[in-house]
Amino acid sequence: MTLSTPPLTPSRSRVFDRPAARFTDDERLEVRASALGQCRRALWYAATDQEVTNPMTDETKLVLEAGQALEPVVVRAMQRRFWTVSPADPDAPWRVEVEALPGLSVSGHPDATGAIELFGDESVIEVKTRGPEAFKRWQTLGAERSHPESVAQAACYTLGVYGDFRETVIATLDTGSRRWDYEVIPAARVERAWNRACERLAPLAEHHEVHGADPEALPERDFSASDWQCRRCPYLNACQPGMAEANEADDLDEETLEPVSDDDAQAALHEYERVQKQLKSLDADKRGALKTLQHWLQRKGEVKARLEGSAKTRTVGMVTSRRYSVDHQRLNALLEPEQRAEIVTEQTSEYLRVS
Ligand code: SF4
Fold first, then answer.
1. Closest approach atom of ligand 1 to CA 243
2. Structural domain boundaries in the chain
3. For residue 229, how far is its CA from the centre of ligand 1 (angstroms)?
């Protein structure tokens, strides 16, 4: 029995599921705007129609399709917040094609256009969905640092729709908390994102000029096998034969460095739960004691007092603390990405969560 796959909307698969790059009938190289950040060798594989050796897993497809399905939800949420938004018609979306370099164009379908809240000028709105970590990273660092390819994509649409660069909106939904937020990228920075994308594509355009559409002549690799771009690349086995297995073996090696049996893990979890329970009840006791001390101080009409403890005399006092918060949306709009990189720095740490 053959099962057919229903598209998200009747036209979605037809219009949006285009290759990342292709050669047009008049022998130009056309790159999909949403693939601007992709490895240039992978774009060449796609354009020369080479066989996919490492297809997407069902899990990855599910995440991708869920993200696409949620984009209209973000547009409706914007409309409810008084944005004037014209979403693309899923059955007949606008197609934008911009000549980036001689012989190379970038094309795509803008998600929406609209005016920023009540009084803004009309501009392109690029809608994204992100998991909680990526959403936080985008909010804090700004799109140009966290997802530069999405700014280049929006820049292409802005140029294609209006013929010039103007301030552009990236609206993003956190798929975990289902909150959405937006960032306005000023026109000068939209233009810079586009120029950077064109600089990056220039060697690919030259490669095309020299080799024509030759599938055997491959551009340089942009990444190495351990990078996530290669691990997710549909052409990994064609580009770096054997590396998919090597990556899997590495993953396995890392996992088996210190073998822990399921029984050991179960025992560790039970121990964790036992300690957590104790800590919770100790914490409740501590909070109760502090509350009593606070009432005692208030009744005395003092903010600080000395009291004999079991081992030494202690000071009991009220402390005022302040928290400072940064409006990342305004900060991102005001500062260049380079200035922000000096102010908002990124640290990563790893920890184990049991939930
Ligand atoms: S495997 Fe890596 S280097 Fe090769 S085409 Fe894919 S992303 Fe590029």
1. 1
2. 12-222, 262-304
3. 7
Alpha carbon distance 201, 193 (integer Å): 12
Closest-CA residue, ligand 1 atom 5, reads: 42
CATH no. for 12-222: 3.90.320
**C-alpha 212 – ligand 1 centre gap (Å):** 20
Predicted TM-score of the model (pTM): 0.76
pLDDT beneath 70: ranges in the chain:
1-17, 117-120, 244-257
Closest-CA residue, ligand 1 atom 4, reads 239
Q: For Cα atoms 190, 191, 196, give the angle at the middle one, nearest 5 degrees.
A: 100
Classify the C-alpha dihedral 270-272-275-277 as positive or negative: negative
* Ligand 1 centroid – CA 230 distance (Å): 5
Which has the closest alpha carbon to 177: 138, 141, 131? 131
The pLDDT of residue 8:
44
Tokens of 86: 């014209």
